[in-house]
Amino acid sequence: MSRRLTRRRLLAAVPAVGLGAAALHASVPHSHGTAAAAAEHGGAAGGAHASGGSGHAAFRGGEVDHRANGFDPHEILRDFDAGTTSRMADGRTLREWTLVASEHEIEIAPGVTFTAWSYNGRIPGPTLRATEGDHLQITFINGGRHPHTIHFHGIHPASMDGVAGIGDGEIAPGGRTVYEFDAAPYGLQLYHCHVRPLAEHIAKGLYGTLIIDPRQPRAKADEMVMVMNGFDTNFDRANELYAANTIGFAYADRPIQVKRGELVRVYLVNVLEYDLLNSFHLHGNFFHYFPTGSSKDPSEFTDTVMLCQGQRGILEMRFPNAGRYMFHAHQSEFTELGWMGFFEVSP
Ligand SMILES: [Cu+2]
Predict the structure, then answer these.
(1) How far apart are CA 201 and CA 273, in angstroms?
(2) How far apart are CA 44 and CA 207, in angstroms?
(3) Which residues surround ligand 1, an ion (CB under 5 A)?
């Protein structure tokens, strides 16, 4: 009775991007996963399952319950967390955050739930934002049932690296630690759990973005964060759903509103597990691309960038024309399984 869901099978059942969502959901088998899948999952309770019953919501109808999830991809898009700031004796800015890891079930497509692990109850975790040279203090509390860490990309002491056996190493359930370092170098960094099995700890949702602004700030822009991710709902180490900021088609159901002629800056991060590459393609326009955001000179003027897991970059664009412009992974398979959306450019 339980037909295993695979993305190949899903793709075979999805006729076109335009009606992908409803078809996608219709083809998700309504079972609660097999014992083998649970075992493969490392014994953690729950896991992904599709809820049965009638009244299937249309994916493109925007029927994922964002409130129940505790986060909305449209809010995550432009939500930057500057932390609690104070002045240190040497005049520098101290920024403090608290990140709590926990486990909870989220709805990643209408009726498709997934037992996620998250920082502060959202996936991706908070977008931490600092300025080059600030001193950062991140208190990490492990509220989950597995050991976790926060491993930051950037330049910092080894003891602050958030990996097993160095510094405080893995933080046991109920434990806490403080990661403390100076914000360097400027650019677009990321953070994620670094506990084995690494792929699982990341794919369950323990990741987020750290933006370090240069001392001389970038030009004013309409800024947003897109963390490209995916979900392995049947524990076969392949993703069944793809997205930017977790909920597939979220920006197709409700396009991202931008203004014609205004500078748009996208902080693009790839944390996708189980697939070697991901990409971002923009329709009807080109963008300047700044790899890792570590230079103010773009490396490229293009409409498509390709990123390996952990790679990230800043995209800057202005739309000369009003209208609706699609963006998506140029791996068509990912597009059809959720990773696509629109910019709605106002006149
Ligand atoms: Cu972890």
Answers:
(1) 10
(2) 19
(3) 148, 193, 195, 201
pLDDT in tens, 3-19: 455 665 655 554 444 43
| Cα 187 to ligand 1 centre (Å) | 25
Going from the Cα of 129 to the center of ligand 1, the distance in angstroms, rounded, reads 22
Taking CA atoms, 139 is separated from 86, 182, 245, in Å, by 16, 15, 24
> What is the pTM assigned to this prediction?
0.85
Per residue in 228-248, pLDDT (tens digit) is 999 999 999 999 999 999 999
Q: What are 19-59's pLDDT values in tens digits?
A: 344 444 434 433 333 333 333 333 333 333 333 332 233 45
What is the residue whose two structure tokens read 């109808």? 61
> Beta strands 127-131 and 80-81: pairing type?
parallel
Q: What does the alpha-carbon distance between residue 50 and residue 61 come to, in Å, rounded to a whole number?
A: 18
Cα 194 to ligand 1 centre (Å)? 6
CB-based contact 291:242 (threshold 8 Å): no
Distance 221 CA to ligand 1 centre (A): 34
Amino acid symbol at 295: S
Distance (Å) from CA 191 to ligand 1 centroid: 12
CA 84 to chain centre: 23
- Indicate if the pLDDT at residue 170 is higher than 80: yes
CA of 290 to the centre of ligand 1 (A): 30
User: What is the spatial distance between Cα 344 and Cα 319, in angstroms, rounded to a whole number?
Assistant: 10
